[in-house]
Write a structure and sequence with these properties.
Helices cover about 45% and strands about 20% of the residues. By secondary structure, the chain is α+β, with helices and mostly antiparallel strands. The protein has two domains: about 60 residues, Alpha-Beta Plaits; about 60 residues, no CATH class. Keywords: Membrane, Transmembrane, Transmembrane helix. InterPro entries: GSP17M-like_dom. This is General stress protein 17M-like domain-containing protein.
Length: about 180
């Protein structure tokens, strides 16, 4: 698990505890994260000390991709669905703890109906308060213009050589 403050959640030795700029020399630059990840995997396969490597996204952009138009029908349907799930959850809990005989359907139906009603009300109020300023649904993603692979100076030359052989392809590896 990674932490937003650098390093792993378990406190890897040498990992910064606060956000810090990356250090090291560039040993490769790639157009996509997948290519940078493949390069580091190639280094790892070659017994390279990958704990000295950092992938850095450069020229960050927030990309918002519009996925559809928002309408009253979609707002009310989405509110009803999310309210139904929450109401069902509450209803099941009430059912389990309300009767000594065990599972009862009444609290589940009441929870479900109440959840749907409040889900619709809250979704409608939220949409109405926007007054048509945002009549679309979107998904946001943070992407980089390029991905640099950095390595600590003591291993940078060896890393560049390994990645150069990867870039040359399998037909040129005559070592």
């Amino acid at each position: 698990m990674t932490s937003p403050f650098g390093g792993t959640g378990g406190g890897a030795p040498g990992a910064p505890r606060l956000p810090t700029p990356p250090t090291g020399w560039p040993i490769g630059s790639y157009a996509t994260y997948e290519e940078a990840q493949r390069a580091v995997d190639h280094l790892a396969d070659g017994d390279f000390p990958v704990q000295e490597v950092t992938i850095v996204g450069v020229d960050l952009m927030l990309v918002e991709r519009v996925t559809g138009k928002l309408s009253w029908g979609k707002v009310i349907g989405g509110g009803a669905a999310s309210g139904a799930w929450f109401g069902l959850f509450v209803g099941v809990l009430l059912s389990l703890f309300s009767s000594p005989e065990g599972f009862v359907i009444g609290p589940i139906l009441v929870g479900l109906a109440t959840g749907v009603l409040f889900g619709i009300l809250f979704a409608a109020a939220t949409y109405a308060s926007s007054r048509g300023r945002r009549d679309f649904v979107s998904a946001s993603q943070l992407v980089a213009g390029r991905y640099d692979v950095l390595c600590q100076p003591r291993h940078a030359e060896k890393g560049r050589d390994i990645l150069a052989r990867l870039a040359m392809g399998p037909r040129h590896t005559s070592s």
